[in-house]
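Cross-posted from the bioinformatics board.
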Amino acid sequence: MFDTLSGKLQAVFERLGQKGKLGEKDVEEALREVRLALLEADVHFRVVRGLVDRVRARAIGSEVLQSLTPAQQVIKIVHEELVGLLGEPGKLASGGAPPQVIMLVGLQGSGKTTSAAKLALHLKKQGQRPLLAAADPYRPAAVEQLRILGRQTEVPVHAESAGDPVAISRAALQEARSNHLSHLIIDTAGRLQTDNALMGELQRIKAAVSATEVLLVADSTIGQEALRVAETFHTTVGLTGIILTKLDGDARGGAALSVREVTGVPLKFLGTGEMLEAIEPFYPDRMASRILGMGDVLSLIERAQQAVDLDQVEETRRKIRSGTFDLGDFLEQLRQVRKMGPLDQLLGMIPGVGKRLAKAGEDEAGAQDELKRTEAIILSMTPVERQRPELIGGSRRRRIAKGSGTSASDVNRVLGQFRQIQQLMRSVPGTGSRRNIDLGRLFQ
Amino acid sequence: MSFSIGSLRQAAAKTRSAFRDRLASVFSKSELSAEVWDDLEEMLITADVGVSTTENILGELRGRERKGQIREIDGLREGLHQELVARLNQGISALALDDQPVVILVVGFNGAGKTTTVAKLGRYWQQAGKRVLLVAGDTFRAAGGEQLNIWAERLGLQCIAGQRGADAAALLFDAIASARARGFDVVLVDTAGRIHTKTNLMDELGKMRGIAQRQQIEVRTLLVLDASTGQNGIAQARAFRDAVGLDGIVVTKLDGTAKGGVLFAVADELGAPVRFVGTGEQPDDLVVFDPEAFVTAVLE
């Protein structure tokens, strides 16, 4: 269920690899996995079909068949196609006389009110002066919700307890103008795209305030329906962008791709948590990685390159090859990982690992403590013990536990982990000699 | 648009028309060609039924075709109907509410429609002659409590709410004491929306369940699932089941064109029964789920 696309493709090509040269039929089998992964990520059926056709055209007769690493080649092509489909990094339209008017529209429960407050805070942090307007007189307490969020973000809110959303929006614009504010963010009521009366209301609001941005707020867990929703909102109201919300769960957000592909409307922001700071500009490469379940490998590599000493890596590699990787090296590895940043973020970036270790990663403080404990235990060993952990018996174990302020069972646990890593390293085929360590295999 | 009568048939009208167009094209073919099977696959997947459930269904149908049980298009239609109904019929039994009081936890993802559903369920059991106490357990979202309070006033129901940020489990503890003292039958608890991968928030639900159970109170858990949810619905249902158990699902927002196809996948993988369907924004827009009628409405 949680197998990543890279893992599946690796398996396909490994099986095929044993029979020598790869042919077009083999690529078909890989494409089947690509198709399944995209459909499971809720990318629309038709969009998947088009994408798979393009990947096929590029894969067949190209570098893939000759490559030593066909799985990576296919992933690379799919990833590139996705990035291409997803368009440009998101940013708000600018220019024109202030206030810029931003309308948030969407289905019920997609996260409009929360997104409005997040967007306001985001703008405020950039030195802008936004005004929030509550144009949802239908849902009970919706206006109150925005008022509270306005207080929390210290952004003024134009709220009227009753009335026509068009008139409210017009009055809000007046207020923004007379107070010389930079942005007006209008939170509209949730509505179904099939509701003609309410869709007409959006058209009237848009005309009354000459909105510069009409952003569709869409839940990242939405399925194939996303396409129809976006199409209808786009044709009746005219969208300028999309905010994809609730991306802090495990939804892949494939709907984003369908919507972008079919309507051409760009993604602009992502909602990534319940806190009001949790909004970030959209980046196509990151979204593509997420849809493929690849994790944010690019960011991980960036961080690793910043934190890791390359000579050290070469040294470690040599030790693994010669079988002299000891607890001292293990400690060095742990320290390097720590230099790369908070553990839960790192785990989330590693393909396939994010989900499996989500529990461990979520308890960030606990994970950091764990690293510190492990470090203390190894530091309490003598250099000889670090090289030859098999020497550690009952009495040495007690001394190490005492020295590190832990218990004998903690010491055992670290020794167990180290043994597992040693085994893992031995089991990685061709380490060093044949080809590079295949990260994908480690994380399957 | 209004769904004041709130019949499933009406709610499914749009679902039906979208589905029907495609079905009409699938079933307009005269023979069971490869194209018909492909179209059927596309139809199920674009209804959010999901790849593996679609493959299971098509596998069953192809098996029947091989055995000669399905020979022509009408047989395929009938077979599809049976397969879909069979999936939804898994685990179906009446929701037992005999104990007094019984606590019903209404849980789900952010924005699924929990608060509105709690109001509708309150109305439903109120009309069935039960004494219903609403508990505004969403103490996280700004104005979450106010929203339920407004519903309670409109419906003439009692509602217990706490301060924003208050401990929902403590609120439930008070609600149970109050229900016992004042003779309520059903304690209907709204909870804060939560993303199912956040273990600390899921543990909080387990704590609420534990509070009731320690007082020898029966707890039923209903998961609210948005009909437009895609394959993530399966992960949601599984995580909530593992955290607090699952006595049933309430599907919401089935008044658009969303087909709620993920229900088939959820039923296929978890066997959790769908209990109610939300069909609009009014308090009466709630109907008891009927698998046969749902599938008929969808395929008609």
